[in-house]
Write a structure and sequence with these properties.
heterodimer; A: 476 residues; alpha/beta; Rossmann fold; Fumarate Reductase Iron-sulfur Protein, Chain B, domain 2; 6-stranded parallel sheet; 4-stranded mixed sheet; 23 helices; disordered C terminus; B: 214 residues; 2 domains; 7 helices; 32% helix; elongated; binds iron/sulfur cluster; LUD_dom (chain B); NagB/RpiA_transferase-like (chain B); L-lactate utilization protein LutC (chain B)
Chain lengths: 476, 214
Amino acid sequence: MTVQSTTPQFKQNTKDALKNANLQTALRDTRNGFVGKRAAAREKMGVDEFEGLRDAARDLKNHTLANLDVYLEMYEEQVRASGGHVHWAKTAEDAQRIVLDICRKADAKTVNKGKTMISEECGINDFLAENGIKPVETDLGEYIIQLRGEHPSHIIAPAVHVTVPEVRDEFRKAHTHLDADRNLDGLDTLLKEARGVLREKYFEAEVGITGANMLIAETGQSIIVTNEGNGDLSQSLPRVHIVMASLEKIVPTLEDSATILRVLARSATGQDMSVYTTFSSGPRRATDPDGPEEYHVVLLDNGRTDMIGTEFQDMLRCIRCGACINHCPVYQTVGGHAYGWVYPGPMGSVLTPSLIGVEEGGQLPNASTFCGRCESVCPMRIPLPKMMRHWREREFEKNLTPSAMRYGLKAWAFVAKRPWLYRVKTRAAIMALGLLGRRKGRFAALPLASGWTGGRDMPAPEGDTFMAQWKAGKRP
Amino acid sequence: MSGRDEIMQKLTRTLDQGDGRAARQAAVRAHMAKPGGPVPSIAREEDAVGAFIERAIKADATVSRIASADDLPKALAEELRNRNLPAAIRHGADPMFAGLDWGGLETSVGIGRIEEPATLSRAEFGVAETGTCVLASGADNPVTLTFLGETHFVVLDAGDIHKGYEDMWAALRARGLTPRTVNMVTGPSRSADIGQQLQLGAHGPVALHVFVIG
Ligand code: SF4
């Protein structure tokens, strides 16, 4: 079983999120950070060049996916040639079993984890713990939420929902070997404490598990991209290194990885390049004084090959940069946990029903305003709104939608299938709202939408739909 | 059926419905012969060394230039003094270091240790595009030195600084290097996981200083 979802309770989750004052503070603090930084990075590189790289990245991934079997074979051969092992996991349960086997053979008591969303997807932490092996998250954000017994609420900033006083409390509770009266006021003292505590753990673990941002077919290397350096310590110090990656992470060559790297950090955090980009191949060589003695790759399918050849194939281009999440007005309001499974925001709304089924995850695509910002910033040009619409229709066909929504959706589908009518209608509605809210620029309350405006002001529409503005060149 | 066969058969069956296997293999061969995408202008800067230094500093590294490797011990001693660090350095078996007269500096050779105030590595290449150092792991420059030093010092030949990633990969292939890890390092480690405030020095080094030779 993959990690348990609370996605079917999506509506209740969002209500809880809107009432959670701490969460709302945390979300407000971050709302504009990522957005501004991405925009600045794009400007700095030159808009035309950046957009050209997005095209190239999309084409590269399309080519790779169309020939994925050929590239996977090439990749597997190269990993073997460098002394590593490739394990194929059709399902999350297969991945759990494979990881546990490797850990048992290594006689592992403790496993260090670099940040890996695939491990979250497979519920590796709980599974290892049930089997008497202690998983320790080493990414600072992941470590904080592990202490709190939570799951990540964002794919690149897992603890974005946790406030500083909450971190302080957790550290006091968890680090009981330290002086109870110590000063933990400054952010720097918190960071130093986490650094000290985790550094010792690196040396204790027998196995290190990391994810992979890419797998290179030409060389059999796995790539991890981090800012903290925890992924590197997790893979260099333990005796065994396990890479957990889904099979669409393949890129053909080192040069191709450059194309992805050029859009990844800029889209994610607005950095030109993340601090550490590490290309790893195989176990330590005969002359190497450090590094793991065993190198394993767990290649996870878990529903992905079923997406190939369907209208959801484009989603497999995703490089998990988080830009769609950072720019999503729904995410910014309800946070990541409301989505109820591993992947939040627009990418999660498309991926979750694909991976855990429309019965479990089918409510998510309804959590969209179809504003189109996700697609406009996605470095891989994934048509997220279009795919959410596909899901909505499928969910509707299966009669899974709550009946009130089904009723509204019928009308919506009628209009949406006729794009000119859709635009005319939404434009009319938006312009009306714009006139109403023009004076203050925001609505503090909207009829029938108190669940939304209780948590934030609804920005008054700027007078026209996104589509119309975009066409008029007012939007990037 | 093994997981592998199940996955591969499913993939091939679906993908063959597009172009046939032979056509797809040809497409892969064509791509491998001419990989890569557009090279942006930041990766085509005439003055690669100048651009490297500027961008490394923007990524919160510090950089100084020395005339030759022989000047390294003196320059390093001075940097350690300025940072109030002990006059000691840990490095790998790189021939460049073995041949130097370290004077008053206490040196030790080996892998990274849990508490290490200062470590030194030789980078194989630099990339001007983003001010990135590229290190190759091995006995000469153990990978753990890059992550376990409080302050990490990197020495780099100006002639090894390339304009963009493509040039760097070509140079790495030409040198016949196939280390276990290739580590690209751009500035010191950092995290914004506490209070969304960026702080330097997460799990890796708090500071990164690069000596450019020549
Ligand atoms: S869907 Fe696009 S924007 Fe969202 S995480 Fe994936 S690559 Fe990034």
